[in-house]
Amino acid sequence: xxxxxxxxxxxxxxxxxxxxxxxxxxxxxxxxxxxxxxxxxxxxxxxxxxxxxxxxxxxxxxxxxxxxxxxxxxxxxxxxxxxxxxxxxxxxxxxxxxxxxxxxxxxxxxxxxxxxxxxxxxxxxxxxxxxxxxxxxxxxxxxxxxxxxxxxxxxxxxxxxxxxxxxxxxxxxxxxxxxxxxxxxxxxxxxxxxxxxxxxxxxxxxxxxxxxxxxxxxxxxxxxxxxxxxxxxxxxxxxxxxxxxxxxxxxxxxxxxxxxxxxxxxxxxxxxxxxxxxxxxxxxxxxxxxxxxxxxxxxxxxxxxxxxxxxxxxxxxxxxxxxxxxxxxxxxxxxxxxxxxxxxxxxxxxxxxxxxxxxxxxxxxxxxxxxxxxxxxxxxxxxxxxxxxxxxxxxxxxxxxx
Length: 402
Ligand code: PMP
Fold this sequence. Notes:
This protein has 402 residues and is an alpha/beta fold. 46% of the residues lie in helices and 14% in strands. A seven-stranded mixed β-sheet has the order 2-10-9-8-7-3-4, sandwiched between helices. A two-stranded parallel sheet has the order 1-12. Strands 5-6 form a two-stranded antiparallel ribbon.
């Protein structure tokens, strides 16, 4: 007997379920392109050299201990994370118009940001997310009691951005609503706006007085350059908008399971920044009290030490470049096997994923016949691919689309 017998079974997580099926498959040719984690050419997880060195320094530092951090985490980490996102010359940071706290990676920052808005945002509690988006976005904001609406983003015929549709939907949004934007390397499509299109989105957001919430899970991981991938965030911030930013160090520092992130609210007046920061801290206090220290201690050392920072940037570019090489090699292999159709989008898309355009039935063929595991929306993780496997993957894709 249990008073919990009526609890409904939760549906399996779309992505973690794939990993389980992958584990159970005994084929030597099996490939897991479902998970969004970087792998090396041998398919192994990577701990960056800069992370290992920073961790060694943390362990050897006699002033380090295991006491609680404050509710807002490591102040130096917050300062350096904001600088990395908004840039050295950011007027908002110089004027003290940011409230930044350390959070539990990107997800935790989105959630605390959502909780803060649901309690204190004076505008409509409506969050607009792209179609499609990272599946957790809707769930997180609904959990915070917000209403979630969608705007057009991806256009299947061009496998690119539906810019006109996106702008139309933004213009039709309730005045003052919250607009969630992927800062770069849109997940799952790999389709990002051009600089001109970002300007158009900014103008439309300004006209409707929208509050922009940037989700930045891939800064530096998309192009290999932190400044280039920070373009959209800086454009909006420098235009004087108030905005939120959830920053994750999971991908760019490879600190996935360490849960390292930062949440920033940029406000128009530094007096408001102090009040906002106090409420972000209370929100954290009630959810998990204070963030974990180990991963953030590592990240702080990397961000603060010029030599480690330089080493990290080289390694970050190495990861981004390997992904770009995988795009080229897969594209080449698809040409060589004569897979029907135009695969140029594999080269054009940005970041960790490629949205192949394969249908659910075609994905089923990939998995059942070829032992290639991927999400049903046709998304593959380019970071899980290696040179020696591009030929096999191209064969499987050819067979599946024919
Ligand atoms: N946002 C997006 C768009 C993501 O792709 C991810 C990672 N899959 C996250 C947020 C959050 O990841 P984490 O909580 O591990 O930082």
